[in-house]
Structure prediction request, 327 residues.
Amino acid sequence: MSGGPHVAAGALGVDDRASAPRCLGAVSGAAGGPTVVITGGLHGNEPAGMHAAREVLAELLPRRSVLRGKVVAFGGNLGALERGVRFVSRDLNRGWHTPDLERLRAAPEHALSTEDQEQRDLHRAFLALERERSRLVFLDLHTTSGPTAPFVCFSDTVANRALACALSVNVVLGLEKSVDASMLSWASARGHLGVSFEAGQHDDPGAVRRHVGAVWLFLVAVGALDAVHVPDEPAHLAALAPGAGKRALVVEVRHRHVVGLDDEFDMLPGFKGFDAIEAGQIVARDRRGPVRAPEAGLLLMPRYQGQGEDGFFVVREVACAPRGVVV
Ligand SMILES: [Zn+2]
Prediction:
């Protein structure tokens, strides 16, 4: 992007909104580096990623002389963010099939739902970046309704595995296969790299700190910045490090509990992400009665919010995948 290091909202040809602009800002450095695309708030009850993206951009601006490439950040579901809900009519992190996106591009404005418009805005912005012909690398920032150790998930390619391992948090394999057409699955299908980072519970003050740390470490991992130029790198490493006596895990998804609209799904209280569970253990209730874990493993993303079709996941450690080794 030409015209200076800082690019105001709207410069990508997307709509401005007074309360929350789509483009949160951008910082450009030397030519030849990647374009790092940060998205925050794709779910409207997860504003921590947007706060973190703004903070990093502000600190990156005076360091633009040592930046290779560009960093640009977008707000996700602006309508849902204003309301403080996960989504208004549908999950914005689903439905990123190319045919659906082409339908949205061609549809008249009045025929679009709130999320249709949000998705069309984002899609247009990404296509505009593609036309700049730099290598695109996505970092999609999320939080969860229940407490959890931070983790990273991604479309499973060798290059994405290497990026994911650079963040030194738990790695979850196979999550993208169990949900329908996430934004990153679109990016991967277009040949771009990218990972999703889950920083912890929505209202955990530490979530913003972990997002900030993840963004800085990610910039180093993709070659946009040398570690020596990261402000207070030890603090970011510490924010993402497993607790005392713990180690980062590599796990794979074994089961996804899908919640139907009329299920009256109610997770039992007290679960955290990566809690050990037994086969047959009651973990939730719905209108049919107790909901049991189908097998032993670790619980991931127990749903403690009223929206979303993912009730919980069961994951299991992959013993043959040592960290740092791309398998
Ligand atoms: Zn999310």
